[in-house]
Amino acid sequence: MGDISVLNQQFGIAGQLEFIEAAPGMIVAQINNEQASASIALQGAHLMTFQARDQQPLIWMSPAAKLVPGKSIRGGVPVCWPWFGAHASEAGFPAHGFARTVGWKVVDARPLVGGETFIAFELPQTAIPQAQWPHPCRVRLNITVGAVLEMALVTENTGDAAFPLGEALHTYFPISDVDNVCVSGLDGVAYRDKVTGMDLKQQSGDIGFPSEVDRVYLDTEASCDIVDTGANRRIRVAKSGSRSTVVWNPWIEKATKMGDFGSDTGYRTMLCVESANAAENVLTLAPGESHTLSVTYSNEAL
C-alpha cells in the first residue's frame, strides 16, 4: 500500500488529496474539493464515504464498521472480484473474492479541469493468491470525485487462456428508513431470489422492503433509482458493462448475526444496489481482452 509520506509526495494534491493512517495499518485517501468529499481505504481500494457539496451523504458506512487489516469493511463500496458471492467450486475460498481485503496501490491521482479529483488504484500481482486465482491479469479501479461519483473497474486478461470473471461494486446507500423507500427501474426483469434458494422469479413493479431482500437481477443494464420519500430524494445508479443488478437488505435477523451493523435497527438505514456480473451473467474474458464495469452515482430532490 505504501508509506504515507511517499504517497503524499507522489500523489498528494494540495488542498484536494491527502493520505492519512485512519487506523493501525489502514491508509486512507481523503479527498476534498469544491464539488465533493470522499475517503477511500487503500485496502480493497474501498470507497468509504462520498458527499457532494450541499447534499446528503450518498454512501452508507456502518457506525460499527471496523478498520482492520485483512478484514472486509462494512459499508461503502466493497470491490467484489474475481467472483461474486461464494466461489463456484471451492467452499473454502473467501466470499466475494479476495480483492476487497488486500492492499491496492495508487497509480495515478490528479485534479481535473472541471474541478473533480481523479484517483486510480491497481491490484498488485503480489496481492493475488495464486492458489485462488492463477490467471495472469491486470485490475484497476478508477474513481472520479465531483458533483457525482464515478467508478470504473477494469479487468484485462494478460494471459494466453480465457478465464471466468464475476464482479460487483457492492454499494451501500443511506436511506431514511426501509419503510420509506422503493427501488425502481427493474420492473419485468427476471431475478434469482437468494432468500428462497436461488429460485428464478420475475419482478413486478417497484421493489419494496417488508422483509429480507437478496436478489440478483439478470440481463439488465438499466439504471436504477432508490426513491426515498423520507429523505425527499432519489439516488440514481447508472451503469455500463454490468448485466446484473443485486438488491440487498439483510433485515434484522441476519444483520444482528453480522455484528457490525451498529445496532438492532442498523439495517433499516441502509440498502445495497450493486452493479455486477453474477450468476448467469458471469463473463468469460478472452486472452488480450479488457472489460470495464462503470457506474455513476448521483442524487436529486424528489
What does this structure look like?
Strands 5, 11, 12, 14, 15, 16, 19 and 20 form an eight-stranded antiparallel β-sheet that branches. Strands 6-7-8-9-22-18-17-13 form an eight-stranded antiparallel β-sheet, with no helix packed on it. A four-stranded antiparallel β-sheet has the order 1-2-3-4. Strand 8 and strand 9 form a beta hairpin. The protein is mostly beta strands and 302 residues long. It has helices spanning 4-11, 251-258; strands at residues 17-23, 26-32, 36-41, 46-52, 79-80, 105-111, 117-122, 137-145, 149-157, 163-165, 167-169, 172-174, 181-184, 190-193, 199-202, 213-217, 224-228, 233-240, 244-249, 270-277, 283-285, 290-301. The protein has a single domain, classed as Beta-galactosidase, Chain A, domain 5 (Distorted Sandwich), CATH 2.70.98. The protein is 5% helix and 42% strand. The termini are far apart. It is globular, with a radius of gyration of 18 Å.
